[in-house]
Amino acid sequence: MKKFYLILICLVATLSTSFAQSGSIKGRVMDKETGEALIGASVIIKGTSQGVTTNVNGDFLMQNVAAGKQTIEISYIGYEKYETTLTVLAGRIMRLPTLKLDPQAMGLKEVQVLASFQDEKRQQPTPISTISALDIKEKMGAQEFPEMLKSTPGVFVSTGGGAFGGSSVRIRGFGSENTAVLINGIPVNDMESGRVFWSNWGGMNDVTRNQQVQRGLGASKLAVSSIGGTINIITKPTEFRKGVRVSYAMSNRSWKHRAMVSASTGLMKGDWAVTVLGSTRQGEGFREGTSADSWAYFLSAYKGFGKNHQLVFTAFGAPQVTEGGRSATLETYQTVGDERYNPAWGFRDGKRFSSARNRYHKPKFMLNHYWDISPKTTLSTSVYYSFGRGGGTSINRTADVGNPVPFNITQGADASTYQVDWAGLIAQNQAVTPTNIITGNDNTLVRGRLSQYMIQESRNDHNWLGALTTLNSHITENLSITTGLDYRWYRGFHYQTVNDLLGGDFWLDRERFNDRPDNNLLRPNFLAKEGDRIGYDYTGTVGWLGAFAQAEYSLGNLDLFVTGTVVQSQFQRNGKFLHEEFIDSSLGKSELHQFTNYTVKAGANYKITGRHNVFFNSGMFTRAPFFRDAYVDARVSNTIRGGLNNEEILSLEAGYGYRSPTFAANLNVYQTYWQNRTLTMGTFASYVNPATGEFVDDFVTVRMAGVGALHRGIEFDFLWQMLPALTLKGMASIGDWRWMGNAKATIFTDPGLQIINDNQTVYNDRLKVGGSAQSVAALNLNYRSPKYWYAGISYNFYDNMYADYNPVEKTNPEPYFNQVERLNNAYTFDIYGGKSFKLKKGLILQVKFNVNNLFDNRFVIDSNQRTASFSDPNPSPFVQYYFGRTFFISTVLQIR
Asked: Distance between CA atoms of 615 and 655, rounded to whole angstroms?
């Protein structure tokens, strides 16, 4: 018996000694993008067979781990492996911070090579903000895609007409035509005007992995001349994990209902994988008379060819029919008493009917090849194709009838006049006495009623083909060189058609409001029926070939880059109609206009310590004028006025950054000087008709040359990890954006038929640039609970907002020093939250909500100055209001 006790005592002593020499490791494993717990993830001590798996909460506890330095390896199907090293103390439980794994996806690497601004090994000397997939998931709600950028320094987002797809974004005061927008590194700016129409990408938030914003010139890997900055949207790649995701949402914003489903095959035999997504948005919007019938689809297919070659095919599009909003004057909104007012609609046959109906489909197809030539050299090539079909409707009328769209309602007006009287328009057309009309080259006699009102559709179709190839070579550990070619070919098809005769028999195709001259002498006195082309018909062809090279060099704590591009571009108009007033220039091809432009950029980033850095960059480039600004009126003529000159831009920027484990901040200043810009604006004005000597209130076109602008400002942003689950983000930016120097303008009657003034001075020197808030600030407080729920609140502040000036109002030197109207400052609060539920193995339910503009603060977000006329000497400006309080509720079921 004594012997037994002796053995037991020795055994206990041995075990005690063993335990005294070991400890435990405790932690949690989560999805980096979604914040979801990863169930069944493998956690092992590297180099041993000792390991555990995570439970339903993503937690693990590994016991009896030998004391000393240990490397932990975490792996999970569909995710990149993760390693971390720690020192285990004997007899202690070592708690690791939450371990976040990156989803593994085929095709992501090559997309990032083409698209990403940031080199992981170097810190670029340029301000970059990234909107992560987790931010998009939590904060997007029913907002438009550009609105996710509203808390980014230097960025201002307008909700436009208050309808689906109507948002716009400006960076440092520059509109979309001066901001490059890329999807997976592929340009999407319209090649004729430079603009981005976000309505064409109405479902992009469903398929976005992350979004990067590079402010200023920066070091982007593309031959683009972006003045304000570059926005790059990186879509979700082909998923490595197989699974299905289904969601349904309700909102009162731009639509009422949204349904979405996505599925991934995972990696299959033959090294194939496919991911698909489809969604739809339906119902009325927040602003009255607006609605959405929108669909979106996305396909990503991956094929691997050994270790060195990958092919990824991506296709996406958003076919949609939307009813939008028209602008109204400030006095109109005050008279009606509702900021949601929309003058574009009324009732027809007892149903709501809008004059502003837009339908469009602009799919994009991309084939990307990625080739690892050697461990230090890679070649990425993308070929893409896009076609767009669609247009928007509006009311046209003859000269002897009034405007049926009540955009300018004055005090005392009857409420019955607030909307379009469709029944009255139809009755007026049907009351027209049938007449005999001689039409066509064969003098055919036709009898019928000529519509005084009708609905026309303005079509803007296009075909677009492009290729982008990028060669990246790490010459040494410190030197990397990227070179590439950027080719684009674009053809736009622009014409009008008769959409609805509103009870009449024909529409006489004469210039504006059915007056003379004839729009097309190839078919004089043309009596158009529904579907016939009227007004104008032309194509615009734009070609582009760019070459670029970028060198990045690291020398200790110093990172340098220099970029150069050369672009050869050209454009040409081809008219299909023979306009009576432009007999020599309307029909056939114009001269081929060619331009050569360059860009030179350089910058440096110096890491003072591991926590402090400073940077400086500068750049200068020239840019060709856009197709849309080149012609007197591209709708009817090949005529160029005032010559075509390259624009010149010089930009300087400097900044400071700080990083610590719990706090990060950036401070930067910038200045961009823009010379020799050409601007074309349209507005109503009073003038003396050069042909008749009569006083007229009508639409005119103002083409200004030699316009200058100076944009400068300071930007600050920070991130503070207050607690492991509590984060505070903030930013503030103050800008001073002004037009510089007075411009010379040519003023034409619409559509450029007669010159009213060929050398008019526009006194716009020092005027504030309108269209965006020059001072903005934002705060976001976010809490992510270990119990799989999150909540947050965001605050946005806008100040120094100015109206867009009207050039006709600035032709008189007397009010030269009068500044444009300054709008009231404004703020919004947004709240959001959500929770995930584990139903059973492989089945997860997510519920989330968003309330935007919590306190229903309705304010003017955009204003356009109107011209005083003989009939209205003190006109009320056109304005747009920000959305009032809107909500979004969503449920997501994830099956793995």
From this structure: 5
